[in-house]
Amino acid sequence: MTSLSAVYDLAEKGDVSQLKEYLKTHKDDEDFLTTYVTYQREEDGDTALHAACRIGSTGCARALLRAGHPWNAMNRSGVTAAEVAKASGHQDLWELIVEEGVRVEMIMGLLGRKNEKEKEEGGKVIPNQEYLEQPLTYTEDRLVDADGLGVMLGWEEPLMRRHAEILCPRPGLDVLNVGFGLGLIDEHLQRFKPRTHTIIEAHPDVYRHMLDKGWDKRPGVRILHGRWQDVLPQLAGEDFDGIYFDTYGEYYADMREWHEEVTNLLRPDGIYSFFNGLAATNPVFHEVSCRLAETELRGMGLATTWESMPMDPEEQEEKNWGGLNGRYWTLKEYRLPTCRFDL
């Protein structure tokens, strides 16, 4: 093999036939995938997939993905190949990479669930145990954890208002919210006068805050303190018109597990929604996550529609994120999910 950059060089030229032949000839070479296919250019960390996307070579991109090139590889600036494709006007390549991401993540999810089943005898790990054991701090419009990370921030208020409008469009409905946080969506749900309003909250500090604020005395409100996985038996035989989900410290696998329960809790004409912070610091990862969630919800009998709400995270940078050690949102659009049974 003449050069570490051989695969990159062929992709940069857009030479599909030579690239395919090269990949086929060397596919069994030691470290071929990890060293040569995923080679990163010295000056900027671009991969062969970045190069193919920059010039719009769908053939090269497809060949690289089939050879095992990671769909989510980033250069040193944190930019993915799909972002390069979109910026260069190659929407077809954006779609190709996003669909590859959904395919790969679905397979990885299946393998992950298989491994989890095999490990169940050793006791299940609680993913947000560390979060639940650390103190939280409330300020006027922030809930922050012990690491200085935002659990929930006040800028979400317009989003929560819209979620509540969709979930509880008229008085007298039965609603369920998983994850209280700042109580933004619950305040809006109360304004629509639900018949019953059940709130599941796991963190002891948030639970105490709810009691201090008198939430246990609000009309129709019932608070279930504990992880949703642990309090679900208390909801046996119940169903709801509107259900909202927004936990902290959990992963997509936990949301998938929750979605398997939603179908037992949602009435036939009910509406389900969740805070769509899925991979919300990168547009490609977010798109893949949204499509993955939509596909898996469809498999559970729920059809999802998305409402676009414009965001400008840079406009209020200091107000929203000043003094915090990280951000959970950087996108310019919020895609609000509405899920109904596909009857």
UniProtKB/TrEMBL annotation:
Stored CDD domains: AdoMet_MTases
**Predominant cellular place of this UniProt entry's protein:** cytoplasm
Q: Establish whether keyword S-adenosyl-L-methionine is in the entry.
A: yes
Q: ANK repeats located where?
A: 44-76
Entry superkingdom: Eukaryota
Q: Top-level EC class, please?
A: transferase
Q: Which Gene Ontology molecular function entries are recorded, alphabetically?
A: protein arginine N5-methyltransferase activity
Any one cellular-component term (Gene Ontology) = cytoplasm
Cellular localisation:
Cytoplasm; Nucleus
* Gene3D superfamilies from the UniProt entry: Ankyrin repeat-containing domain (1.25.40.20), Vaccinia Virus protein VP39 (3.40.50.150)
Note whether Nucleus occurs among the keywords. Answer: yes
Q: Which PROSITE patterns match?
A: ANK_REP_REGION, ANK_REPEAT, SAM_RMT2
Domain RMT2, first and last residues per copy = 124-343
Q: Which Pfam families match?
A: Ank_2 (PF12796)
UniProt GO BP = methylation
Q: What is its EC number?
A: 2.1.1.-
Keyword vocabulary terms for this entry:
ANK repeat, Cytoplasm, Methyltransferase, Nucleus, S-adenosyl-L-methionine, Transferase
Assembly, per entry: Monomer.
Indicate the family of this protein. Answer: Belongs to the class I-like SAM-binding methyltransferase superfamily. RMT2 methyltransferase family.
Q: What does this protein do?
A: S-adenosyl-L-methionine-dependent protein-arginine N-methyltransferase that methylates the delta-nitrogen atom of arginine residues to form N5-methylarginine (type IV) in target proteins. Monomethylates ribosomal protein L12.
What this protein is called in its record is Arginine N-methyltransferase 2
